[in-house]
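User: Hello! My lab partner asked me to get a predicted holo structure for this protein. The small molecule is 2-acetamido-2-deoxy-beta-D-glucopyranose, SMILES included with the sequence. Please write out the structure tokens.
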Amino acid sequence: MNPPPRYPLVTFIFLVILTTHFGSVTSQSDDAYICLNNGNYTRESSYRADLNSLLRSLSSNVGNSGFYNTSVGQVNAIVLCRGDIQLHQCRSCIDHVTDDMLQLCPNQMQAIRWSELCMLRYSDEFIFGNMSTSPAVMRWNDQNNVTSDVDGYKRVRRKLMGDLFRKAANGSAMQKVAADMAPFGYNKIFALVQCTPDLSAVDCYYCLASAINAYGRDNTRAGLTIYTPSCYLRYESAPFYNKTRLLEPVEPVEPPSSGKNDDNTTRNLDDNTTRNLIIIVIATVMGLILALCVGIFTIRRLKRKTKGNPDRKIGKWSRNSSQKIIQKFRSR
Ligand SMILES: *[C@@H]1O[C@H](CO)[C@@H](O)[C@H](O)[C@H]1NC(C)=O
Ligand SMILES: *[C@@H]1O[C@H](CO)[C@@H](O)[C@H](O)[C@H]1NC(C)=O
Ligand SMILES: *[C@@H]1O[C@H](CO)[C@@H](O)[C@H](O)[C@H]1NC(C)=O
Ligand SMILES: *[C@@H]1O[C@H](CO)[C@@H](O)[C@H](O)[C@H]1NC(C)=O
Ligand SMILES: *[C@@H]1O[C@H](CO)[C@@H](O)[C@H](O)[C@H]1NC(C)=O
Ligand SMILES: *[C@@H]1O[C@H](CO)[C@@H](O)[C@H](O)[C@H]1NC(C)=O
Ligand SMILES: *[C@@H]1O[C@H](CO)[C@@H](O)[C@H](O)[C@H]1NC(C)=O
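Assistant: Hello! Below are the structure tokens for the protein in complex with 2-acetamido-2-deoxy-beta-D-glucopyranose.
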């Protein structure tokens, strides 16, 4: 009923999906960060010194693609800016997420931080090209729900997402991002999806598909954002991304030898990759059908049991169950 707000991020509710070993999650108005419980360093260690100098180097080193990865000593780090923002916005976002990171995670070797326009991830483990879908953070916009023709809405959204996932996965080694709008009745769905471009096409697709399947499939809020360590997905009922910027070619760090249009050199998928992609899609669909059958079967059984045992709550059980499916996605 209300027109969509110009900037629909004003109200956010956070749902943080975690299991205990991930460590503490905190979110400020627009940020979420996780200090992982995978090892601590001491104040005097070289790890801290290396991490400190690495964090300071990131914003000046990031280029037009918005992606940068580097290592200092034992520390590996990745930064990724949303693909539609300007370089100066990207750099100031990275300044923002790196600035107080050592206060936020004072001795953890691994951490992830997401802001609206960029992401930072560092680890003592090798994280380059290493797809990860957890921990994940989901935020939604509570000002606008889809209330009529929910099935139609989900169908349009599924189609849009599938198209964008394929397009992003088919991106280059410098940038894997895609955005588009799909009309839905009198409304529209605007969406942007992105992977860290160090991922393979298959891993990029898998990351995005498992994020929406695990966290967003049944959601009927008109605005949703999912952050994982390797990919990002957002849709809203109002435009939020800069389409013009996305159409600009990404200049490589080394100037390109042949001028402006590098589309065909950077966006090719070889046949093998396409085949793998299709196999993954089929496997995912079959997995979902199987999960659905198991789910229906278990609910039926549980309902039967509940009759004899009024204390048992289906609600509680379902929550645990969806947690399990999330674990399955994680364990790849
Ligand atoms: C690491 O440090 C945090 C506090 O900063 C503490 O809660 C955690 O237990 C420590 N982990 C290990 C493995 O020592
Ligand atoms: C960035 O990641 C790639 C793998 O995607 C790796 O080959 C390269 O060495 C990394 N760059 C740095 C500076 O570590
Ligand atoms: C990828 O990351 C996981 C932890 O997230 C780590 O156990 C694994 O060794 C990494 N893979 C490579 C090739 O380093
Ligand atoms: C949207 O739905 C959620 C729960 O499903 C509810 O909490 C929220 O108030 C709804 N928002 C509007 C604008 O109706
Ligand atoms: C969108 O991107 C274009 C091209 O980079 C830029 O000129 C324009 O200022 C951007 N618009 C906004 C609102 O940032
Ligand atoms: C890209 O396009 C140009 C001209 O259209 C062509 O010469 C070149 O071979 C193409 N590169 C690839 C990798 O397809
Ligand atoms: C990948 O990108 C290339 C060049 O833009 C295009 O020709 C090809 O059809 C795309 N493949 C898919 C599966 O979208």
